[in-house]
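Supplementary Methods, section 5.1.

A reviewer requested that the exact input to the structure prediction be made available. We therefore reproduce it here, unchanged from the version used in the analyses.
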Amino acid sequence: MGNIYLFSLIAGLLMAVLIAPFYGLPAGKKGRKKVGLSTHIGLAVFLTLLVFTFYYLFNIDRNLSSLWFFILVSSAVGALFSTGKEQFVKALLFLGSLVFCLYLLTAFLFNANEKYDTAKMDQQTEIKTFDETKTPASVPPQFARNKMRKAFGQVPNTSYYELGSLQIQKVNGEYVYIAPVEFSGIFKWWNGKTTPGYFTLSATDSSANPKFIKSEMVYTPSSYFGKNIERHLRMMYPKSIFYGDVQLEVDENGKPFYIRSYGNFISARNGFDVKGIVLVDPRSGKTEDYTLDDIPDFIDGAVSPEVVSVQNSYFGNYVHGFWNSVFGKKDVKLPSDEGTEANVTPIFDENGSMHYFTDFTSPKEGVDSMLGYSLTDSRTGKATYYTGNLEESYMDSEGALQIIEKKFIEKKWKGKMPVLYNFYGEASWLTPVLDSNGFLQNYFIVSAANPETSVYGTTPNDALRQYKLALQRGGGGLDGRSEAEEKQVSGTVLRVYKEKSGDFTAISFLLDNKLSYIISSEREPLAIYLKEGDKVQVTYQDTGEDFLPAMQVKIEGL
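The structure derived from this sequence is encoded cell-by-cell as follows.
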C-alpha cells in the first residue's frame, strides 16, 4: 500500500499548492487576509485523504494523467481565490489543464483510425471443415451453471459461498468449464477468510456431473480490502492499464491461478491495446507478468473476452473513421451481442487452441443477414475475419435463434450460444436448446445459407448424423460433401438398420470389412431394398466417423 500513500500525498500537496493562495485571499474592507500555515497543512491533509479514498475505492491506475479532473478543479479554484501575478500564473495553469482535459475527453473523435489499425484482422473466405470425428464444445454455460449449483452441496460451509464466473478451458486434453467458489458477502468473507476451491464440468458431455476440487484461495474477486484480487493487482502494478475481469485458469495439475489482461491506451487515456497478462497465485498472492509472446502453456484465455469484444467493435465500426460510424456507415458491420462472455463465444479448433467467435451483421435495422464472422486467438489476440461465400447470403446468429424459437414456440424453448461451423462443407449454426428452466433439451443445426435445412438431436453427434442425411437429400442445392477423401469399397452386407427420417428413410449397414455406412433413400432410392447378404459396391467419404457417409450404393443383381 506504500505506493498509494506516496501518490496520494504528492497529489494532495500539489492540489493544496494550486488552491491555497501564497499571498492571502483577495483584499476586503480590512485589506488582504493572510492564510495561515495551519490552513495550508489542513487543506493538504484533507486533499490527500480525498485522493487516497478516490483511488482506493475506484482502483484506477495511478499515473499522473489520471489526476486530470483534480488538477482542473484545483487550478480553477486557485485562480479564483488568488490575486496579482499568482492569479495570472494559476489562470494559465487552469487554461493548460482545460486544454488537456478537452484533449482527453474528445480523443475518441480523432483516434478511431488508430483503434482500427490495432484491431485490423486478416481476411479469409471460410473456416476449415469441422473434423467429423470430434465433438464440439457445445454445452452452454447456462446449463453448466445450473448443474454446478445443484452440486453445491459438495462445498463445505455452503452458506458462506456462491458460484463464481464460468471460464472454459482445456485441461489435460479435455474441454471443461471452471467456476470458482466465491464469498457471498463481506461478513461471510470476514468469518471464512478463504474460499475452498472450484468446480469443473465437461464442456462436451451434457450428461457429465460437476466435480468439486478442493484448493483454498485467499485472494479472490469476492474478498475484501487487501485480499480482493483486483485491489491486490493494483497494489502490485500501480501504473498498469488493466482491461476486463479477472479470470480463473487451472494448470494441468489442477492448481488454480487468476489472470488479468493488461496493455496500453490507444491515445489520451482512451481505447485499449492488449500487451500481456498478470498471473496471481490466489493462495499466496505471488504475482508474475508475461507478454503475450511468453505466457505459460496452460493458459487458454490470456486475452480477456472484454478485450476481444472491444477490438471487434473497433474493427467493425471504425473502418472509415469515427464520423462514418455515426453518419454514412459505409462498410460498417456490427458485432453480434449473442456471445456467452462479453458478447463473444469461446470455441476450440481441431488443434485444441481456443478462439473467440463473433458474427457481424449490418447496421441497418431489420436485416438478419450476416456480413461475416471472426475468430480471435485467445492467447495471442490475433484475429481472422471470414467473409463467407460471397455468392450466398448467410443468416446471422440472431436469425438462427429466431428459427429455433419458432420451431419450439409451444414449448417455449430457446437457443443459447449459437456458433458457426463448417459441417460437411456447409456453413451451419450449431445451437444448444434450453427449456424455460435452463435445462438442455437438444442440439439444433441449421444451414446459414439455406435456413430450410435444419435438424435437431439429443447430442451434437446425433444432430450431426441427421444433418448429414439432410444434406445428402440435396435440398437447397446442398450435397453434404466434406474435405474427406472419396473412396470405393466392395463387400457383403452383414447387418442393416432402417429408420424413417422425414419423408425419406435412413439406411445404416455393416459390411464384412467391419465398417458401417449410412445413406438416405432420397440420394439412393433403391437402398430401401438393401438386405443382409447382399453384395454391394459403395462410394463413400472417409471421414473417420463411426458411420461413414455413403454417396452411392450399387446392389449386385438389382
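Confidence is low (pLDDT under 50) at residues 475-481. These observations are discussed further in the main text.
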